[in-house]
Pyridoxal phosphate homeostasis protein (Kushneria avicenniae), 242 residues
Amino acid sequence: MSDQPTRATPDQGRLISHTIVAARHRLEQALVDAGRPADSAAVLAVSKTKPAALLREAFEAGQRLFGENYLQEAMEKQRSLADLEEIEWHYIGALQSNKTRDVAEHFSWVHTVDREKIARRLSEARPDTLTPLNICLQVNISREPSKSGVTPEALPALAEQVLALPNLKLRGLMSIPAISDDPSRQRLPHAALRELFEDLVGRYPEAPLDTLSMGMSGDMEAAIDEGATLVRLGTAIFGSRD
Ligand SMILES: *Cc1c(COP(=O)(O)O)cnc(C)c1O
């Protein structure tokens, strides 16, 4: 194989420009089916393990929001794509204290805040030159011992703490529910997250709470049915991961 392809393709052999359009149509259809306005949810393209060239193609096809899980990998891609001024980077990976500085400096959003210490460090490390860091609190909605996330019981206290931090802007909630292939079961954890979100909105009517980050390639429709505003699509856009 001497000839390099001029366009990189995801592993299912489809062009990224096509999968981006297909993901957008899938979202539009899900919103129609749920009786929701067409602009009431957006796609976050989850690009972990995928090369910068594919992200650039997605950007050229109109995608602006990208989610990354691994800090070093993400920062390398950010350097390669520094010319794409409108790109918006969301950190959706595990968060330890030693990562907070880089995350605070290099992302617009963090979806995985689940304890006060991490939130405080993100706020302290957020550069004054940038707008406040947008935050979703990750909730362990299916109560899986192996998963990160604040418990539903501890959520109100954490939300209160995050709202008090000067360089953070609490936007909403995020969850990664237990996997189910059954669409009717898929809705339950999304409905539970929506209830927690509505409770928060009721408690803090002045807060800029507008984001429910839930739903992935396998359960996006169920999440849209239950009010998701940001669906995180990896496989559906970039193909399967190794
Ligand atoms: C990898 C990942 C996704 C994307 O999952 P797909 O099933 O590939 O769509 C979404 N959210 C988080 C937090 C992830 O780590």
Notes: Residues 46, 48, 69, 92, 176, 216-218, 232-236 surround pyridoxal-5'-phosphate (CB under 6 Å). Residues 183-203 form the longest helix (21 residues).
